Structure formats: C-alpha cells, structure tokens
Amino acid sequence: MGDNPPVEATPDRRLALFVSTAPxxxxxxxxxxxxxxxxxxxxxxIVVVIGGDGTMLDALHHMIDTGRVRPVYGVNAGTVGFLMxxxxxxxxxxxxLAHARPIAVSPLAVEAVTRSGRTHRMxxxxxxxxxxxTRQTAKIEISVNDRVxxxxxxxxxxxxxxxxxxxxxxxxxSGPILPLDSQxxxxxxxxxxxxxxxxxxxxxxxSRVTFRVLEPDKRPVSAVADQREVRNIAEVRLAIxxxxxxxxxxxxxxxxxxxxxxxxxxx
Length: 267
Description:
5 helices; Tumour Suppressor Smad4; 2 domains; elongated
C-alpha cells in the first residue's frame, strides 16, 4: 500500500488525524499519513482518531473545548478499543468512512460546586465520579429531578455513567452495561457501606441528578469528570448536554451491539 498514491479527501469531507503518543499509534499514523491528503484539526469535517479509548475521549474533549464537534472515526492501536474500529495495514480509510454507520452520543454537563463556593463547569463523556479524598468514608445525598432519592450513601463514592462509559469504570464498579442507543444513565455506588444492599439505579437520560456531600469538612470528596478532577466538593449537578451531541462512526461489521452483549458474559 505504501506504493499507492494518496487518496484525495473529497472537498466536502476533509479529514484530520488525532493520534496518541504511544509508539503503536504513531506507527499506524505513519502508514495512514501516506494514503490520504490530511487537513488540520481546525479545517477538518471528520476526525480520524488513532489509539485507544482514552485517545478517543481526549479527541472528543478537545473538540468540545474548541467549540467545533465533528464526526469521529476511531482506529484501534490501543488495548481494549471498545469505541474504536479494527486496524489492518491494507485498510482504505476513505472506503471505511464511506460505509461507516453513525451513532449519536451526548456527554453529561457537570456543574461542580466546591466548599469555597466556586462553580466548575465541564463535560463527562464516560462518567462523573465522586470519590472520597481521605480514609474517611464519603457520605453523599442523591437527588433525581429535585427529589431526594437516597438521603445518605456511605462508601468510597458514587458515579453517573453514560452509555459510552458504562463499559468502563461503571462496569468495574458492578454497574450495568448500557447499549449506546438506550437513552439511559447508570447510577452506581462505589464500594457502598450503607445502604449495603443498594446496587444503584438505571435512569432515563432526561433525568437531572444532584449529589450533595454530607460532612464535607470531615469527609472531603473530589469530583472526576473523565480525566478532570475538582477537589473539596460540596455539590454536583448533572444533566445530559444534548446541544453537545457527538457522532461516532463504526464499520458495518464492527457489531458494537454484539460486543456490548458479549462483554456482559466475559470472564
């Protein structure tokens, strides 16, 4: 394939690369750079992400931060690559994109208020986690649509995951896996102590969720939206940001639904 001339991106579909710094991703990028006339990230209409799921999150956050969200096609050069498409050296990226099927996903809009009263606004594509900062058990009040549903959750913390993030930290914390088109959210406790038998909840994605930290001076808690952390939290308010809808592109044979089902039976 290295001897073939570069394939021209069509005028109405300019492509850009977003590449992990990992050696394997750089190797894949070097092959693809010789097959397409690439645009810059600012000019592109579609972004091809090379790496793993973490790189995909970085690319999506970059586009949200810069105010221009575009369809994204992932090429797996990482480990799990749940959100990525399979790579092989002879792949034709233009042909892949021509046959890719889109799946729309939306992040969580997060308003995290610290004990000092400062409000941090950010987005969580995978999940928002509240985590205890010290050896002291966190105590958190949970409200859904302005109604207190759990007056006190005692444990290591709690998380709210989107379908995109349901196979990540949420699943490790024994939360449910959600199909990408389910329009649901997973509310999952992290190592709960009380109520001991509470396993979490599945909520419609139109729900508004509020976490209020109890005894924050004695039991400090941090909020983590994907990779961004804010410490000394008093309250966090969450809702789906539909205005930030993103499009993930998958190969027709990717069988993402099958992977979601299979993951639930993995040993």
